[in-house]
Amino acid sequence: MVDVNSLIDVKNGTQAKRIFWDADIYKLELEQIFGRCWLFLTHDSIIPNVGDFTVTFMGEDEVLVVRQRDGGVKAFLNYCTHRGARVVNAEAGNARGFTCTYHGWAYGLDGALESVPFEKEVYGNVLKKDTLGMKEVRVESYKGFWYGNFDHQAPSLADYLGDYRWFLDIWMDGTGGAELIGPPARSILKCNWKTPVENFVGDAYHVGWTHAASLKALGGPLSVLAGNKHLPPEGAGVQITSRHGHGVGILFNAAAALMGKEEGAMATQWYAENQPKVAKRLSEAQAKYYGSHFNASIFPNNSYLWGTNTFKVWHPRGPNQIEVFTWTIVEKNMPQALKDAVRRSMLRTFGTAGMLESDDSDNMESMTNLNRGPHIAAGVLNSQMGLGNEHEDPESSNIIGPSAIGETSYRGFYRAYREFLKAKDWDEIRANNGNWKNELLNR
Ligand code: FES
Ligand SMILES: [Fe+2]
């Protein structure tokens, strides 16, 4: 039995080290977080045509996502209802239906069991084919981004994203939509799934230190941070956290900061030209953030950097391992030359062999594996930076920490994490809708 109260101290901003490796905690996470939250599947741009499919994961469950004949999207657990073999072995493709490789049961794009070899001869009338379709998973999309959920009591995807959409809309909608460039690169890291999520959701503190050598080598405007020689000046950025632990750290006007000189100039021009359009399409307040660098996570395991233009899912593979899926994100209306530049820059920085990705991976693996030692494991993790400085953001209604470097969104992530692990169902979580801000603000 996991004592959740002993794991996360919201008031003091600390977490027990066990959360990075304990098998019982991991089991509870799979049930109460991955079993209840909206989990990223794919984007419209990856499966545009009827029969396009992609295979991914929801927690440890393998899922097949398929574009339907009516233009909609359905998702199914990728197993055969006969003896449980995998139905689709490819990572992605286009098909008219799906045939299990074991005995040849064949399913339609809509998951219905359509044919069984020698059905009449070998089964007679025994088989109830209409009850033996592939098991469907609830899916919804927001601005073309598709997510799946195992829990039918969960709120809609739009409500789950909640006020955090105020920030998502800036890049998902500000200039007419965003898209992903795939297929995703896939890689294995030997770390707990939360180590990259917390890093992406709120850690600007590590940039000048962990990435010192990479920043110097890249030579862009952020190289002034290398070796922790300078702190970003006051007003350089903020931290945001929202109802269900989604968060973002923002560095103003730094969207092109990790790009090469010419690529960066092209991107900077794009952001400058489009800022007035964003103001018109969304609001002046949102346009203020357009062209900033976002480091962000959508609870539980989906992260993105807008500006460095990577979009990632950290799929758990046991408490000590993850499989990372990495796409490039671009704004749909960017000229092709800029999309290509953004993609090159993303691969150089946060691709599987990217310079900054490799820097980060070392930390994540050590945080996971070191904490298993019984003496080291006894302590707590600290995320107290900026504790008590945050307030409610009048523009977006999220909680805002007023500096570029702080741990506000760490604390918001772990507040939500604790809530999911404690609550027995979504009703209990909903009942806390009016109180979560007080919890975080220690009111
Ligand atoms: S397990 Fe799929 S057809 Fe038998
Ligand atoms: Fe990093």
From TrEMBL:
Q: Does the keyword Metal-binding feature in the UniProt annotation?
A: yes
The record ties this protein, via PROSITE patterns, to: RIESKE, RING_HYDROXYL_ALPHA
Give the transmembrane region(s). none
**What keywords were assigned to this record?**
2Fe-2S, Aromatic hydrocarbons catabolism, Dioxygenase, Iron, Iron-sulfur, Metal-binding, NAD, Oxidoreductase
Q: Which Pfam families match?
A: Rieske (PF00355), Ring_hydroxyl_A (PF00848)
Q: Which domain of life is it from?
A: Bacteria
User: What CDD domains does its record include?
Assistant: RHO_alpha_C_NDO-like (cd08881)
Q: Which GO terms describe its molecular function?
A: 2 iron, 2 sulfur cluster binding; dioxygenase activity; iron ion binding
In this chain the Rieske domain maps to: 38-148
Q: Which family does it belong to?
A: Belongs to the bacterial ring-hydroxylating dioxygenase alpha subunit family.
| The name this protein goes by in its record | Naphthalene 1,2-dioxygenase
The organism that produces this protein has a lineage beginning with: Bacteria, Pseudomonadati, Pseudomonadota, Betaproteobacteria, Nitrosomonadales
